[in-house]
Every structure is written in C-alpha cells, then in structure tokens.
Amino acid sequence: AQSVTQLDSQVPVFEEAPVELRCNYSSSVSVYLFWYVQYPNQGLQLLLKYLSGSTLVKGINGFEAEFNKSQTSFHLRKPSVHISDTAEYFCAVIYMEYGNKLVFGAGTILRVKS
Amino acid sequence: GAVVSQHPSRVICKSGTSVKIECRSLDFQATTMFWYRQFPKQSLMLMATSNEGSKATYEQGVEKDKFLINHASLTLSTLTVTSAHPEDSSFYICSAIDGSSYEQYFGPGTRLTVT
C-alpha cells in the first residue's frame, strides 16, 4: 500500500544551523512529491514540489529537496535556519497509479532555538 | 498563486445540530476538491474526494451520511457535518487541485467545536 514515512516527529536545531527533514515513500513507478509547511493555526503552504526533470528542487524560504528514486526518498534541507522556520513540515506524495490523491506523512515539527 | 478560501474559519455548534463548511477556489476552476480532517498533533487524514457534478468518493471509515459533500460548481464544494457530536470537533481543511500542475492548493481550514 502507498505510504509516506517521516522518520522524525520533532527536530530541534539551533538558529543558523543546517537542517534535514527526512521523507521516504513506497516504491512506485510514477510519483509526484511535495513538501508543505504549516504554521500554528494556519493552513498548509506549499514549499516545493517535484513533478519531473531535475532531481534537486528549490522552493521558497531557502528550502530545497532532492528526489532520490533508488532510495525512494525526498529529504528536505535548508543550509541555515531561522527562528521563523519553526513550524510543522509535511511530506506528501501523489502515487499516479492511484489517481491524484495526496498521501501525507505524519509530519515533522521543526523547532529552531536561539 | 492560486487561492482557496474556507468559510467559516471557526464555528461552535451544539451537539445534534448540523454545520456547513464552504470551500471556494477563488481564481481557478477546480474539477476536484478534497476534504481533510486534522486531529491535534497529527497529519491530515483524507476524508473524501469531491468531483464537480458527481458524487463524492469517501475514504474507508468515513460515514458518507454524516459528512455530506456537495460539489455543485467548479469553484465551490461544501461539507456538511450532520448531527454533530463532540467527537466531530476537529480542524477541517479543503484543497482544490489544479489539473494542469497536480498541485493542490489548501484552504486555511475550519475549526469546528461541538459542545
């Protein structure tokens, strides 16, 4: 069955340090991959997406992610985080053989400390 | 970017009453909209897929008679929680899909509290 795994429920990190939020998905022939951010009491905002083409995708707020088909991963990275990056981050996947439904990971709370 | 609105943003209702939540795509036509439910500190759970002009497709375990979905036009889908109970209290989020990019645009969510 299709699933999305975010291995870390919480990631604490100091301001200006690099961060990586991990995401793995079920092996599938064709997938579209997304990262969303949710600030407290707000809706989801798209950070970046991979549909095709270059496996390194750059998004808003300095985030980037790399699609690794052999490892079925789509880890999110930022070289230097800010306090304002504190939020919950969701990895999501569309498995094309199952239509256009997004399957969400459980989320990772990023806590940036000063 | 594309905007999806939800109304109301917050609603408090008494047990046994029904509540309607609207989801609108403001600057694009959405043939498909999705309704999610998010419990505190958990991920989004897909409740149903709403297709314009046809019946919604509900996920396993979601009661279609309790959560009525109507997608009457290309810009509006509604979710009605019928005979609400306290356990229905949750954050309900809709999204609308842009068919050309497969990107889903999410509404800001509706917090339902049933007393």
Low-pLDDT residue spans of chain A: none
**Structural class by helix and strand composition of chain B:** mainly beta
- How confident is the prediction overall: mean pLDDT of chain B? 90
Q: What overall geometry of chain A do the principal axes of the alpha carbons give?
A: globular
What does this 3D model show about the protein?
The complex is a heterodimer of chains A (114) and B (115). Helices cover 0% and strands 52% of the residues of chain A. Chain A contains no helices and twelve strands. Chain A is globular and about 45 Å long. The mean pLDDT of chain B is 90. In chain B, the strands form two sheets. In chain B, strands 2, 4, 5, 6, 9, 10 and 11 form a seven-stranded mixed beta sheet that branches. In chain B, strands 1-3-8-7 form a four-stranded antiparallel beta sheet, with no helix packed on it. The termini of chain B are far apart. Chain B is an all-beta fold and 115 residues long. Chain B is 0% helix and 55% strand. At the A-B interface, strand 5 and strand 6 of A face strand 5, strand 9 and strand 10 of B.
